[in-house]
Amino acid sequence: MTQTTAKTKTKTKAKAKRSVTINPGMICQPIGAMQAVLGVHGAISLVHGSQGCAAYPMRMFNRHFQEPVEIALSSLGEDAAVFGGADNLVKGVHALVARRQPELIAVLTTCLSETIGDDVDGILRKIDLPSTLVPMHTPSYIGSHVTGYDNAVKALVTHLAEQTGPNSKINIAVGLLNPGDIRELKGMLAAMRVKAIILTDISETLDAPLILPRPRFPDGGTTLAEIADTANSIGSIALCKHAGGSAVKYLAGKHKVPMITGACPIGVANTDRFLENVSHLSGRPIPDELRKDRGRLIDAMIDVHFKIAQKRVAIHADPDVASGMARFVHELGMEPMIIATGTESKEFVADVEAVASQTGHEIEIISGCDLYELHEAVKAVGVDLVMGNSQATYIGGDEKVAFARIGFPVYDRVGYQRRAIIGYGGGINLVDRITNAILDHADSA
Amino acid sequence: MPLTLLECDIPIPEREKHTYIKKSGENIVPLANVQTTPGDLTERGCTYAGTMGVVGGPVKDVIHLIHGPIGCAYYTWGGGRRQNLSDNPEFHRKYCFSTSMQEPNVIFGGEKKLYNAILEAYERFPAVNGVFVYATCVIGLIGDDINTVCKNAAKEIGVPVIPFSCEGFRGVSQSLGHHIANDGIFDRIVGTKEPDKVTPYDINIIGDYNIQGDLWIIEPLFEAMGLRILCTFTGNASINDLAVAHRAKLNVMHCQRSTPYICELMEEKYELPYIPVSLFGIAQTSKALRDVAAFFGFEDRAEEVIEEEVSKILPEIEYYKEQLRGKRVFIYQGAPRAWHWIKLMEELGMEVIGAATTFGHTDDYEKIIERIGDGAIVIDNPNSVELREILLGYKPDLFISGLKEKFLAYKLGVPFINGHSYERGPYAVYSGFLKFAKDIHTTINHPAWKLIEGRA
Fold first, then answer.
1. Do residues A68 and A216 touch, judged by C-beta distance below 8 A?
2. What is the pLDDT of residue B30?
3. Beta carbons of B118 and B153 less than 8 angstroms apart
4. Are A204 and A267 spatial neighbours (Cβ–Cβ below 8 Å)?
């Protein structure tokens, strides 16, 4: 595995590079792309690969979101591995259109189809069907699920965005967040009376009501017309620069849509900045309602400050969530000791270094970090609280310290997909989550 | 009625060969174990899933090292308290090992990375008794010689390093992966050690993966009859148990899709006979105990065990039978449970109105069709569109399937049980049967179903 380790203000520890990854901190590209596609109304991912590349991600989504998920497959077997998968892909697209009539089919490549060398773009160009076909290159041996999400959103705007006339909307590329986050985001935008195009919107598609009869496709999701319209927006913001940032850059380059990239709006300062950016792009003021939400978050922070101040924290999450959390735990009066992400990224290191230099904390930053590495760092540094996904919970258990869940997947407790971590409301949720984790741990000790 | 075409399959007429409405006297079996139709919204897993996820993964004291890009390893990591339990939770399923192949490794080959990864993993976890190496899709394409790497690494670290070439594209489903795992374990592990002691009453339980602790309620029944369990293949197994398995006197084969291979190989090489059993429900479990007891001449002990166990659960089972009588069930399982459970449902007074498997072969479907009633639908490798049509059209009172279908059922307002990893199991033998019945009763009668807007 590749790792970048930086320790701000102190020596940078030279770490031996391991060939073995132990308890990975990232997944591969296709699942990230699938999550992006699941936020598009009437869209289905068709994986150009073997059976597991569809079945395994489905299971992961099921466990985290507690929702049904459909993923189609071109079903590559031994013949395709030898002779190429073009026939399977053509047949697969036709069958999927005939059976489901999706508005969009995202064709996701895998390590298998990329290594075979199928010309997916060329094959799809020759197909004439009522569904929009979008190739997405997501080889599993490059990057991570974060890269896959980023590539997918970029592929969507590259294929669909079209200049037709100004629309007075803001594009917001969300990143790998939860339905609860998108609802929080929509709440903030509604309060500001700002119209937005959410790239992509899983708030209903992956949190659908149980009402019969069930629609053919889940309600909600970003429509193809909205994606087309992103070229005409007054600006774009990517909440997570690593997951959605490329799409926003593409729109800025190709369609001259002004873009602002800031930190993921986690905590007070980051949310302040986000709202200022929205205000700047839209010309709309930040209303009292949001000022009150901000006040409620700060009220919650002050209420608990003796319970959590000076606690030493280790966080493992996707890059933008982890760097956003670094600043927020500082605001909470806690000590961000280790900020780690599974996806290798220099930008992530720079983002956390900026937090460290602005706040004066000494932070061990680990990019490209598996959980074994995280665990070793936790043992060496000593912390009071570990934050990560369900796979990381054992570190809290082994080290007998508090653990608070964040990120994807969370499957061993319920409700995390419904609760925001972004915005002032999300900040309140995090204050509660972190404080209760510390109190629960103290009670059980 | 002959083979049938569901309405949703009209654009894909080849699905007709996989779909049969049972009629007595006919000699028809749906087409099985063939490549999934491209474009399908399949529920199937890959060859690697069969080798690592099902058969290899439960072995509790080896490093399971996945040689491929990171996703393959990530997806088989964990499972928590719900599946493949072992008595080594401080290591087993807690740690996940991968070579996390990156683009340069794909271009220049991954043999060196694999070799180093084996050594590094072993260095960190020296208490393990072996290493299982699983090659996934891309490895088969670039042609890494994993056999030689594993041989060299084994020499270096001094414990067995077992290669499995289980690339996802090799087979049509998990099924080939089971076979690959069976062959690898038989060729390279079974017979490599001798047990500390042998008795005339040693058996292996083959093809049980200790889902939610199934084995821990199965084993005591055989032990109560005076038998000794030498090896469980592979639930809660040590690689050392597998190594001495050839010295048992009888193989008791539970999963008859994932393990007939090794039973046949052991019979051929070691003259070790096997008996297929169903360890679900009263009738089948009792028959299994009687069959195994008869092999050892322990018929009387079997009757004692059966009487005691049945008397413990019968009053409650009678209650559930009364409550569940006439309820209609659709069962979709990997393969054998689809037919194991037809009789079990009948024991609860329920009717099986449909059965399907993900990776069943013709013989699985023959057993299903032999057991299921006229008019029931039997479908091979169904996809989410077909499942929706069946659930809406046949309106079963209960759907038993796996996680990938669970939320589809819920969203259609259909009571559901996860038959793969269970709800509040384990579900095997007598005490598990009672839990199964209770779970069925719980979901069918849950008050929240009645609150759903639009549910008839």
1. no
2. 96
3. yes
4. no
If residue A315 lies in a helix (H) or strand (E), which one and from where to where? strand A312-316
Q: Tell me, yes or no, if B141 comes closer than 8 A to chain A by beta carbon.
A: yes
What ipTM, to 2 d.p.?
0.96
Minimal CA–CA distance to B412: which of A212, A36, A166? A212
For residue A99, list chain B residues with Cβ-Cβ distance below 8 A: 8-9, 11-12, 39, 41, 385
Residue of A nearest to B13 (CA): A95
Residue B445 contacts A, CB cutoff 8 Å = no
**Among all chains, which residue has been given the structure tokens 């056999």?**
B147
Q: Among B15, B137, B403, which would you mutate to test the A interface (most chain A Cβ atoms within 10 Å of its Cβ)?
A: B137
Cβ pair B130, B185 in contact under 8 A: no
Cβ distance A140 to B71 less than 8 Å, yes or no, reads: yes
The answer, for B226 touching chain A at a CB cutoff of 8 Å, is no
Residues in B 14-53 with any Cβ partner in A closer than 8 A: 35-49
Distance CA B351, CA B344 (A): 10
Q: If you average pLDDT over residues A239-246, what whole number do you get? A: 97
- For A283-292, what is each residue's pLDDT tens digit? 999 999 999 9
DSSP line for A9-48: TSPPPP-PPPSSEES-S---HHHHHHHHHHTBTTEEEEEE
With beta carbons less than 8 A apart as the criterion, state whether A55 and B42 touch. yes
Would you state the pLDDT for residue B2?
A: 81
Quickly count: other Cβ atoms within 10 Å of residue A77's Cβ.
21
A334 alpha carbon, distance to own chain's centre: 25
**B70 close to A (CB below 8 A):** yes
Mean local confidence (pLDDT), A54-81: 95
B39–A95 CB contact, under 8 Å: yes
Chain B residues closer than 8 Å to A57 by CB: 71, 75
Closest to A71 measured CA to CA, from A38, A103, A110, A119: A38
Q: Which domains does chain A have, with CATH numbers?
A: 4-24+290-444 (3.40.50.1980), 29-142 (3.40.50.1980), 170-287 (3.40.50.1980)
Instruction: Tell me the C-alpha distance between B325 and A198, whole Å.
Output: 50
Chain A residues in contact with B12 by the CB 8 A cut-off are: 95, 98-99
- With CA atoms as reference, the chain A residue closest to B114 would be A19
Closest CB to A55: pick one of B97, B404, B452: B404
pLDDT at A212 over 60: yes
**Assigned fold of B47-188:** Rossmann fold (3.40.50)
The span from the CA of B450 to the CA of B456, in Å, is 9
Partner residue opposite A95 with nearest CB, options B11, B116, B172: B11
Size of chain A in residues: 445
For residues A399-403, average pLDDT: 98
Which fold would CATH assign to domain B202-303? Rossmann fold (3.40.50)
Judge: B38–A99 Cβ closer than 8 Å, yes or no: no
Total residues found in chain B within this entry: 456
On the question of a common fold for B47-188 and B202-303, the answer reads yes
Nearest CA in chain A to B115: A19
- Boundaries of every domain in chain B: 47-188, 202-303
Quick: pLDDT tens for B405-438: 999 999 999 999 999 999 999 999 999 999 999 9
Hunting for tokens 């510390």 — which residue is that? A438
What is the pLDDT, as a whole number, of residue A414?
96
B361-387 pLDDT, tens digit per residue, is 999 999 999 999 999 999 999 999 999
